[in-house]
Amino acid sequence: MVSKVVDSQNEPPKIEFPCPDYPIKVMGDAGEPLRLLVIDVFGRHAPGFDPSAMTVRDSSKGTFQSITVKIEATGEPQLRTIFEELKRHSIVKMVI
User: Fold this and answer.
1) Is 32 exposed, middle or buried (0-12, 13-18, 19+ CB in 10 A)?
2) Looking at the predicted structure, is the pLDDT value of residue 64 above 70?
3) What are the Cα distances from residue 87, in Å, to 8, 23, 28, 60, 72?
4) Which CATH superfamily, name and number, covers 19-95?
5) Is 77 within 8 Å of 46 (Cβ atoms)?
6) Gap between the Cα atoms of 4 and 71, Å rounded
């Protein structure tokens, strides 16, 4: 009998789509431009996005902000588009 060992650390987690309440965190320069960018990008690519449900946190010195958004992820193409579009802007430092 042959058994196959799977190294779960090397495999990305499996996500079933649609995935409700999928969290995405955007970190960038603090200020209104970051918030408006997040609202614009998610408004175009995440049907049902509610800006009032965003969580905004300032860094200890107030230089940066993290904005957490929960969306209904419809598939990898949607997520890739959101990540790529956000990362194109210089005010965005990281998207996770």
Assistant:
1) exposed
2) yes
3) 28, 17, 10, 23, 20
4) ACT domain (3.30.70.260)
5) no
6) 36
Place of tokens 């902000």: 65
pTM listed for this prediction: 0.84
**CA proximity to 64, closest of 90, 83, 91, 39:** 91
pLDDT tier for residue 3 given thresholds of 50, 70 and 90: very low
Q: What percent of the chain has pLDDT over 70?
A: 86
According to the model, what pLDDT value does residue 7 have? 53
> Amino acid letter at 20?
P
Give me the pLDDT at residue 6, please.
52
**What are the extents of the domains in the chain?**
19-95
